[in-house]
Amino acid sequence: xxxxxxxxxxxxxxxxxxxxxxxxxxxxxxxxxxxxxxxxxxxxxxxxxxxxxxxxxxxxxxxxxxxxxxxxxxxxxxxxxxxxxxxxxxxxxxxxxxxxxxxxxxxxxxxxxxxxxxxxxxxxxxxxxxxxxxxxxxxxxxxxxxxxxxxxxxxxxxxxxxxxxxxxxxxxxxxxxxxxxxxxxxxxxxxxxxxxxxxxxxxxxxxxxxxxxxxxxxxxxxxxxxxxxxxxxxxxxxxxxxxxxxxxxxxxxxxxxxxxxxxxxxxxxxxxxxxxxxxxxxxxxxxxxxxxxxxxxxxxx
Length: 301
Hints:
Layout (H helix, E strand, L loop, with lengths): L2 H4 L3 E7 L4 H17 L4 E7 L9 H10 L6 E3 L4 H5 L7 E5 L5 E6 L4 H14 L31 E2 L19 E4 L10 E9 L4 E3 L4 E7 L3 E8 L6 E7 L17 E4 L3 E7 L7 E7 L4 E8 L1
């Protein structure tokens, strides 16, 4: 696809990175708009600007795009050249370009989907499309793509590498870039977390050096996700999830069974808890039965 080929088209530019929960929750709407307005002249272009190093791997991006059914063109922006050119700071970020090539609107972050679709309709009408269906798309999102439970969301994204983490409370604190036997306290305050076992805490991530390492996190949200992957490509690590000391049962996420069992076999975001019913402060624990896992960040919904 060339600039000449886009002439006369309305273009929606979507900055994304595949492990980002905020982008995942916007994806059903972008999918629906691409399908509904394609024949009227809308072109959707994804710009994949990675947050973590593993998202710079083109094979990982291809696999993620396939798994998430991203079937519109993707510009791979691993050096963030387009990110800087747009002076962008957000995932997701939507830029709405009219048929003359002018950026007419932007949407940073999730939400405002009705307004975004109205902008698409307006730009198509200005471009001479008179047969536009002015109804709005209806989206039924499931799994990790379901909208967050904003009313009960009292936990913010937290990175686990030492550069950006918050509220880490293992005994001895953080030992930068060195193997250390961490010990977790028996009880955590809300939005605090800890390690147990032989871990190395790096700038961007934490790496488990021996089997049976644990991460413990006290949170208040419907959903809990963890971005993680194997240290060695192609390897896998088994894990078990507990909530308040018990298997999750009906509140397990899409990447674990009701006993809390799962496997890390690729670098991505894993949904570990999806609660139903009243939301309260809960203590989450994940134990890795094998070494060789790397974790990056917790997100919630």
